[in-house]
Amino acid sequence: MTSEPTPSVETGFGADVAALAKVVARQRAEMERLRDLTASSAVLERAKGALMALTGRSAEAAHEELLARAEAGRRTLIEECWLTLGALEPPKSAAPDADPAGVPASPSRKPAPTAPGDLADVLADLGRALVRVGSPQELAGYLLRHLGPDAAADAVLLYQRLPDDGLELIGYAGIDAALAGRWHHMPEMNRLAPLDCLRTGEPRWLENLAEDRRHYLLGDPPERWLSRAWLPVPGGPGSGVALGVLRSQEGPFEPRERQLLLGAARLCAGRLRAFDADRAGDADGITPYVQTVLDALPGAAILLRPLRAASGAVEDYRIEAASPEAVDVFGNTGREMLGRQILESYPTVAGEQLWHGYLTALATGVPFESAPFAYQDVVDGVPVTATYSVRAAPLGDGLLVTWLRLDPVDRQEQRLWDVQRLGNLGWANWNLVTGETSWSAQTYAVLGLNAARGPLPLAELPALVAPQDAAPLRAAITELVRHARPFDVPLRVDAPGGVRHLRIVAEAVTEPDGTPAEVHGFVQDLTAQRSAELALVESERAMLLQRGVLQAERALADRLQHALLPLPAGPVRLAGLRVEVAYLPGQSGIQVGGDWFSAVELSDSTALFVVGDVAGHGIGAVATMAQLRFTAKGMVGTGSSLTGALTRLNTLLLHSRDGRSTATMVLARYDPTTRVLTWAQAGHPPPLLVRGGTARFLTRPVGMLLGASATPVFDSAEARLEPGDRLLLFTDGLVERPGEDVHTGFARLAETVRTKGGDSLDSLLASMLVDEHRDDVCVVDIRLPEE
Predict the structure, then answer these.
(1) Closest CA to 686 of 724, 735, 722, 652
(2) What's the pLDDT tens digit per position in 354-372?
């Protein structure tokens, strides 16, 4: 500041006041200039910090970027800084991410989604939100706000690894400041889950509190968070930030929740470190040349270099080169994107088909081409859905990625191609006036022709097909070109893989006078469909043949059974007893079972009762039943004892044709003079005796299944009948039910005969067989009348 001349005595008091006013005015102007400089410096530092967070550049590089933008836009540096900061402000219509105090909104302030969102959409929303994060503390708040509804997160912690292997809490949300103070620093210890995940580079899923407490220190109070996840934030070797997600609910993290948390950890990487674009260098030296080529190319293309973790897994990609028309979700174009990472520039790529396609292209060296997919762009602030296709080709140790926006015509072509491919058909067009012919690529594939030969005239098509189909096709073509009659003709062609069944459909476009001028048609490969139809016809023929065989066998077995096991029309009298018999086959109308009975009066006036059950169904079972029925009656009728008859019947089964038949049986002989029932059994349910309102099963004597052993042992037992007694002999189909213990069936039968529901044989069967029975049922109901 220059010195002012000292006022003289001659100037007087007025001159002194004027000079002092000038000095004060100069000092005030200097202070305002300094204040403006300070404010400008603050704006500059904020703009540099924003660029550093968004692009990962150093402070010097961010400053140079601002200078370059200002010069290109013919603006001052401060104007460019304000424009840069203004571009980061959220739209006025958008819901605020923070309250007026600048604290990120809590999870409770965010409306719960009406349905679980797509994982890619959730990660895209999170990636866009994290652009404006200014500190690890804000990052924790944003993470909790977005992970709460979709991952049931109740608290989020961010720990940074210290040089001495300790941990420092750099951001938190969902816990109070007091608890954060106690957990602010953790020394180097083997039982710290976040430190363990950083050392190994693998996430730690703590989903069982009792088990996890044995391996890790869980803090105080551990019961507040019943499940936890600790994930390393990707960053390659030396990365030292762990993301912790604490939940009050117990149980495992679902697969979708795990993918979401892993994606969130990847997105955090761009916000927590300033990546030096020159750190990795250009390993293969091609980047400058690629950038030079891309600068001169139209369309969108970028060169990506994979960023790998210590394990070798790809965590992200860095943009090494970009064409002028390439643009990211933040509006950066061309060289403005250099040094940025894919998960920052295109957050929705995480976990999508494109991400897996990039990995496959890197691993196999084969270019990846995506199917057309819809993507939402923002044009002049308005969301616009467009369709894109992406191609990623390996280049050096990176990927050259190009993408193309498909216009409606392209999409229509793509749909037409999809229809032809999925329907295995191709279109064809013949101009009868000019002679021009055009085919789709799929037409050549269907006809088995080389596309290099070009399309065939309509008249030459019959030469391609089997001789027996050529004449009908030739006649159909003649009618089409002469009289415009459409046709739909099936035909066959010989191919290296065998005969192929095709279908040709065609129609004519006529002139005003009706003359055909052009033919439109398509050819379709129906080989797979025809093969399926032929197989179905053959299967139906075999089924009909088998059904006829089964019906014939059943009819024969039915006639045999009726002939060998005639049922009496009603109750009969045998040796003073009233006897009633019932037989029900296992399936209604098909009487081909192996259950049987015999109730006859012998020459000595005694009565013989037999109930048996041959294993199996069909003619074989009926034949075995006939052998046993007649042999047993003949043996006992000629004087054999009951046990002797069983022994001989066992020998008969062992020496039968197949030697594998088995059967159960009860033999009983009643003497009317003594009213004594002598009986023996071979693996069969015991008779049920009903007397005076009580029911009990007779104690079974020793006896095993017929046909099971060459040396069986059979004993007999006796029971004296009294007037009014009722004795039931039955096969197991009466009491057995699938999945039920047989003793339960016995108890149900005893209870039924004690009630009125079991008074008659018909009512007994109706009560016991309420459901559709699966086995044959044979019952012999024996009653000794009252005196």
Answers:
(1) 735
(2) 888 888 888 888 898 887 7
